[in-house]
């Protein structure tokens, strides 16, 4: 009886480890430019706009808008 329980248990355990490895690979480099990454361009542009507004500048660039629901 133990062999019939161990086979599905090992398959599930192996799937968990493979899934954890894939999640680790995707989150390993957050500045690569894929859809799950940190939107550095948008963050930098927001900081630039805020600083220019604090200095009283009138020629302020437009914020970065999402393209296809992905903010770069």
Describe the overall structure.
With 72 residues, the protein is mainly α. It is 57% helix and 0% strand. The mean pLDDT is 88.
Let me know the average pLDDT.
88
Instruction: Report, as a whole number of angstroms, the end-to-end distance.
Output: 54 Å
Report strand %: under 5%
Q: What is the count of β-strands? A: 0
The major beta sheet can be summarized as: none
Q: pLDDT below 50 for ≥5 consecutive residues: which ranges?
A: none
CA-atom Rg in angstroms: 23 Å
Q: Residue share in helices? A: 55-70%
Helix vs. strand class? mainly alpha
What is the element string, with H for helices and E for strands? HH
General form: rod-shaped
Number of helices: 2
What's this, in brief?
With 72 residues, the protein is mostly helical.
Topology, please?
Elements: H1 2-27, H2 40-54
Provide keyphrases for this structure.
mainly alpha; 2 helices; 72 residues
């Amino acid at each position: 009886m133990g062999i019939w329980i161990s086979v599905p248990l090992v398959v599930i355990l192996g799937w968990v480890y493979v899934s954890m490895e894939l999640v680790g690979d995707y989150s390993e480099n957050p500045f690569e430019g894929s859809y799950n990454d940190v939107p550095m361009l948008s963050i930098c542009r927001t900081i630039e706009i805020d600083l220019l507004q604090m200095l009283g500048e009138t020629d302020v660039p437009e914020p970065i808008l999402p393209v296809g629901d992905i903010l770069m």
